[in-house]
Design goal:
single chain, mainly beta, 12 strands, 59% strand, elongated
């Protein structure tokens, strides 16, 4: 019913920048929260940056001042501008949409994940 399609990952040198995009498509009525998580090898998935249901933003302390999340509500799309990248930012980055209402079951809320996009930062 709903798909999250990510793009923009890749290989970059330390200090460089990348921009990730995530577009949600399908029979969407509304999305409460949307943002980015990441998972490095051998580690748990962690929050990177999200828009909350109230419209505010939350960032992991490790990325504050370096990453910026933005969105285009009309396109159900979120972006993650990553600057001053460090080798420890290397991970698979996942897009997340939470509290998603769809046309077929408008009373229910769902959570969706993208397929993930690899970000590798070389030292």
């Amino acid at each position: 019913q709903v798909q999250l399609v990510e793009s923009g990952g890749g290989l970059v040198q330390a200090g460089g920048s990348l921009r990730l995009s995530c577009a949600a498509s399908g029979s969407i009525l509304s999305i409460n929260a949307m943002g980015w998580y990441r998972q490095a090898p051998g580690k748990q998935r962690e929050l990177v940056a999200v828009f909350t249901s109230g419209g505010s933003t939350n960032y992991a302390s490790s990325v504050k001042g370096r990453f910026t999340i933005s969105r285009d509500n009309a396109k159900n799309t979120v972006y993650l501008q990553m600057s001053s990248l460090k080798p420890e930012d290397t991970a698979v980055y996942y897009c997340n949409a939470d509290g998603v209402a769809v046309t077929t079951t408008p009373w229910a809320k769902y959570r969706y994940w993208g397929q993930g996009t690899q970000v590798t930062v070389s030292s």
